[in-house]
Amino acid sequence: MLQRALSAVLLVLVGACAAVATVPSAPKVELAPREVKLFRGDGAAATWSELVEAASAAEVVFIGENHGHPLGLASAAALFEDVLARSDKASLSLEFFERDEQSRLDDYLSSVSDAATLERRTQRSEGNFPPGHRAMVELAKAKSRPVHASNAPRQYVRIVSQKGYEPLAKLSWEQRRLFRIPDELLSGRYRDDFDRIMTPSGRDPKAADEQARLARVFRSQQMWDWTMAESVFLALQRDEAPVVQVIGRFHSDFRGGTVQALERLRPGTRALVVSYVNEDAPAALPADDAGRGDFVLYVGPSAE
Hints:
Layout: H1 2-10, E1 21-23, E2 29-31, E3 37-40, H2 48-57, E4 60-65, H3 70-86, E5 91-98, H4 102-109, H5 115-121, H6 131-142, E6 147-151, H7 154-163, H8 166-169, H9 173-176, H10 189-198, H11 208-237, E7 243-248, H12 258-265, E8 271-277, E9 295-298
Parallel strand pairs: 4-7, 4-8, 5-6, 5-7, 8-9
Antiparallel strand pairs: 1-2, 3-9
């Protein structure tokens, strides 16, 4: 399950969603986005209204998604819609837009440009801008709420993977404002899970050659984590709350990655973690999913 989640973070976004989405399982089951089964992270049964209430009271909501999952994205959009209805300070922050695309997003939100222009200028398509994400942007626009392009541009992430962080420190201020060099490399369960998942079968993640390779990849992962955490931090400084950060769930599951980085930047932040799990709904919260999020929602297997 974690393998699929992390692979989704690293692949091009795929898929689509609708107001009522079909879970790609056999037999097919249609569920409304607000009717998915959910639990609290401690295993207690939960309701949609409890989720919305908790999200509305938080400073930050991490919506950990499976990229391109139809029902998952539709449900995430419904959650954002319900939060917007309760808070006139809520904002949206998206992993899937990079910081150098912010002005193009702002042009669209302020009606300087139209949707076709936004898509052309940011090279969006059905694959990397599925309907669930489009719905969230449209909801924010209708309420005149900010949408943040929260991630680091790929050209800088590639440099980190190849050469480390040092070359980035030599760039201009205008370039450096587009990313956050990590204050530290995070450890604990997040790093352990990353190493385990990113190590090919039959290889030892603790072997010296494997550790060298994993370190290069983890540097890039951390650039994403710290840049997105900083984007949320800056939104909070502008008195936006809750800031709804939509993100691949490996970055936020078990309060790892981006959540850890935000806690370093702003200790004590009231952050709610919502994890959408691409598995069939269980009768009770499985032990492996305990603590995955403050709320854990089941939306059925991803399409193969």
